[in-house]
Amino acid sequence: MDVVEFRPTPDQFAWTFGGVAPTHRITPGTALRLWTEDAFSGQVRKDGDRRDMIAKPYPNPQSGPILVKGAKKGRQGR
To answer: Of 18, 25, 54, 74, which alpha carbon lies 20 to 30 A from 65's?
Structure first.
């Protein structure tokens, strides 16, 4: 089984759930090991760090999207 590990750097984070080019193109059956920062992009590190002081663009970074070759929209196989 192929395993893809992806630990993105801050410039590789996606800040939306769509409209971003895939970071990887994989085949079905590939295992993924994905990493990302916490919901505050790793900017809350000590007592006194406040959520309203985090740098933008946005909180809640995403690792991906990942394109699965041959996958189709909808509920296939159910």
So the answer is: 54
Asked whether residue 12 is assigned to any structural domain, the reply reads yes
Q: Does 76 reside within a domain?
A: no
14 falls within a domain: yes
Domain with 55, as residue range(s), is 1-70
Number of domains the chain is built from: 1
For the chain, give the DSSP string: --EEEE---GGG-B-SSSSS--SEEE-TT-EEEE----TTTT---STT--GGGPPSS-SS-B---EEETT--SS-TT-
Could you tell me the pTM of the whole model?
A: 0.69
